[in-house]
Amino acid sequence: MVTESKLCIKNGKELFGQAQVCNVIVWLVIQILVSIAVVYGVVLYHRYIEPNSDSNTGSPKKKENKTVHCCARLQIL
Question: Can you tell me the distance from the alpha carbon of 22 to that of 38, in angstroms, rounded to the nearest whole number?
Answer without folding.
Answer: 24
